[in-house]
Write a structure and sequence with these properties.
Layout: H1 2-23, H2 26-55, H3 57-68, H4 72-84, H5 89-118, H6 126-163, H7 170-192
Length: 193
């Protein structure tokens, strides 16, 4: 009898989850978010590459290594795009605007999904929600750019601090190098939260 009750309660629980997923259109929202993420990816990569080319060769190499980790077809498309772009101000502004707009669409979709999940009706105006999404998108883009900068310039800063005798040993420099990545992970977790 206990086994049948557990089986029935498990089936009811699974049935409630499936009903909630279908009612809230989780698959549609997931597809919408994936589309916006994909459309934000290309202008963001262009923007990062232009910044990297003007800031540091090491940052540019890091970005190229990340691009090489993509599937071959995606890597070829991105590399051909990057080779055709110059660092003109028009391309920088256009890439920044497109990356910001598409990232704000991702945040808008997340907001819509969370509102559906918790059964909350949106009472704010379209302009207010759009401005809020743009603000959060700007924060996310800045965090990503600053994380790249921390990876690139953090190592040089560690070497400089060791040279200036702020680090007495090689172990202290290793702690500095590890803490950079821990800080980046913590900042990402806090910003996503």
């Amino acid at each position: 009898i206990m086994s049948n009750r557990k089986h029935n309660s498990t089936l009811k629980l699974v049935s409630r989850y499936v009903t909630k997923i279908l009612k809230d259109d989780i698959f549609g929202l997931s597809a919408e978010m994936a589309f916006y993420l994909l459309t934000a990816f290309f202008p963001f990569i262009i923007l990062l590459f232009i910044i990297a080319t003007n800031v540091s060769e090491q940052m540019q190499n890091l970005l190229l290594n990340l691009i090489h980790a993509l599937p071959t077809e995606a890597e070829e498309i991105i590399m051909s795009m990057l080779l055709n772009f110059t660092g003109s101000i028009t391309i920088v502004v256009t890439s920044a605007f497109l990356a910001l707009w598409c990232t704000s669409n991702v945040i808008n979709t997340v907001k819509k999904a969370l509102n559906r999940f918790y059964g909350i009706n949106e009472t704010r105006s379209f302009l207010e929600t759009r401005l809020m999404s743009l603000f959060f998108a700007l924060i996310i883009i800045l965090i990503i750019v600053l994380s790249f900068a921390l990876i690139i310039f953090g190592e040089g800063t560690g070497i400089l601090l060791r040279y200036l005798n702020y680090f007495s040993s090689l172990g202290a420099q290793r702690v500095w190098n590890c803490s950079r990545y821990i800080v980046i992970i913590c900042v990402f977790l806090v910003s996503i939260s």
